[in-house]
Amino acid sequence: MDDRPSGVRGTMNPFSSGIAAYPSDHMETRRILVDGRAVAVTREGDELVASDGRRVGIDEAEHLPPVEPTKIVCVHLNYESRRAEFGVQLGAAPTYFHKPTTSLNAHGGDVVRPPRCKYLNYEGEIAIVIGSRTSHIAPEDAAGHILGYTVANDYGLHDFRDTDAGSMLRVKGSDTLCPLGPGVVTDWDFRDKQIQTRVNGEVRQDGNTDEMIWDMHYLVADIARTITLLPGDVLLSGTPANSRPVVPGDVVEVEVDGLGTLRNTVVEGDVPIRDDVGAQPSESEEVISTTYGGDWEFRGIRPPRRD
Questions:
Q1: Which residue from 216, 207, 31 is spatially nearest to 129, judged by alpha carbons?
Q2: Least confident of 23-37, 92-106, 169-183
Q3: Scanning 100, 140, 163, 220, which has its CA 20 to 30 A from the CA of 302?
């Protein structure tokens, strides 16, 4: 008999857009721009339908992030393939970091790699969207607090890892580095779902949610012990192996069974990183090994290379 806590898996769920918090049936909701303002819509086949009956073709819609969270909480290593890639043993419980809401981006949006930066990595993920105020709950009660799920790409700007390895603030929290979408899907079972990341059509990540070490319900209950989660808040649930850097011009897609495909294009930023203040982008062994998937145990230990 498995004696692990509920929500711990083996190694191998109203927000400001006006969508109801507890839809009774499987549905997909999105937020798009219509006549210059944000409108909540429901997907019906290849069309998006607003509450007033207006219809917009999916391919013609200008998407917004599907939710407006007050916080974005992210788990570190959580997929067995990613853990194995770095050759580390995990502790008894997950660890987390935070992405500012200003990092939010949408399906079809541009992901900006700032000038003088080279190590911008994709990380295909599944985002949990909270549906009601959540605090001090058990994992087995978490489903009732989840509105739904959406696709995410937890980009990381590893050029700042030498200075922000602890907080991950600029690494993971810089502008445009949290695309979500296209929509929020309700009544979706996260178990045994494929997650795949493609760059210019080529498969780069290919994983399954059954390799998650801590499942969606566990993550919600864990964070809610000390941090109150509000409707629309987002938890990113981890990425499979093979996060790697992308360059301007690359088209990155993350597809999840039953949730759809999130697509973004990487572009070069127009504004250089100022060099008269703060830490500068770096290329230490730590930056390079983390970017290309190895030697995680040296993170924060190995000093930046100065040559």
A1: 216
A2: 23-37
A3: 100
Please name the residues in contact with 148: beta carbons below 8 A apart, sequence gap of 6 or more. Answer: 13, 23, 29, 129, 131, 184, 185, 186, 187, 188
Sheet containing 194-199, strands listed edge to edge, beginning at the edge strand earlier in sequence: 110-113, 260-268, 251-256, 194-199, 202-208
For 272, the token pair is 């250089």
Q: H or E stretch including 145?
A: none
Distance CA 146, CA 167 (A): 27
User: How many angstroms separate the CA atoms of 51 and 38, rounded?
Assistant: 12
Domain ranges of the chain: 67-292
Exposure string of 7-23, with b = 16+ CB inside 10 Å and e = fewer, is bbbeeebebebebeeeb
What's the pLDDT tens digit per position in 132-155? 999 999 999 999 999 999 999 999
Phi, psi of 48 (to 5 degrees): -110, 125
Architecture of domain 67-292: Alpha-Beta Complex (3.90)
CB atoms within 10 A of CB 307: 3
CA-closest candidate to residue 20, choices 157, 181, 131 = 131
Q: Which helix H or strand E contains 97, and what residues bound it?
A: strand 96-99
